[in-house]
Amino acid sequence: MFELIQSGGWLMLPIIFCSVISLAIICERFWALQKQHICPKELVPQILKLAKEGELHERRINAIRTSSPLGRVLASGLSNLAHSREVMKESIEDAGRHVVLEMERFLNTLGTIAAITPLLGLLGTVIGMIKVFTAITEQGTGNAAILAGGISEALITTAAGLTVAIPTLIFYRYFQGRVDQLVCTMEQESIKMVEILHGERDIDSSEIEESVK
């Protein structure tokens, strides 16, 4: 493996560095974007149960805010429960924008790596071919070792760049879709909570009972 990396030339170093960063981001995002961690399904029923029992005081709201990203969004609305539905929705939307930014953290880096690693591989190809043609100009086509070294460098860097870029791009698209799904779930849960608390929607008592078991 070391010989293969060495044959690829100095451009293998940034490609390997990009692969390490990409792997770290992928592992971190898999952990951070778990649905139960972002949008606990029992959170809204628990809030509705507390509201029904008259227990939605400041301490409870702070506990909800720190429980999860969805809790942070819903707590912003609960802090304005005494105000109109529009005010609650505005505060929820404002908190939601910050939560979405946090969920998209490092995704731009992942997309950048997916874009630049093939270019690094292409640059390695160009440098390798330049070495080949330089060797041909200086020594002719008789020295096969020098020619093979340049061609090897060109092919290895291209393969390495694509090997990093393809899975990185796949996971970048996957995490974008995951964020979109989580945002949709958060919007649904927020709207449900606001409508029920303002008497525009009936409470599903069976859902509340199930969530607190």
Task: State the main characteristics.
rod-shaped; 213 residues
Model description:
The chain is mostly helical. It has a domain at 36-117 and 163-211. The protein has helices at residues 2-7, 12-32, 35-38, 43-52, 58-67, 69-78, 85-103, 107-139, 144-197, 205-211. The longest helix is centred in the last third of the chain and has 54 residues, at 144-197. The radius of gyration is 27 Å and the shape is rod-shaped. The N and C termini lie far apart (54 Å).
Q: What class would the helix/strand composition place it in?
A: mainly alpha
Oligomer: single chain
The DSSP helix count reads 10
Give a short account of the largest sheet: none
Number of strands: 0
What is the secondary structure topology, with strand pairs?
Layout: H1 2-7, H2 12-32, H3 35-38, H4 43-52, H5 58-67, H6 69-78, H7 85-103, H8 107-139, H9 144-197, H10 205-211
Short description:
The chain is 82% helix and 0% strand. It is an all-alpha fold. α2 (12-32) runs parallel beside α9, α4 packs across α10 (205-211) and α8 runs antiparallel to α9 (144-197).
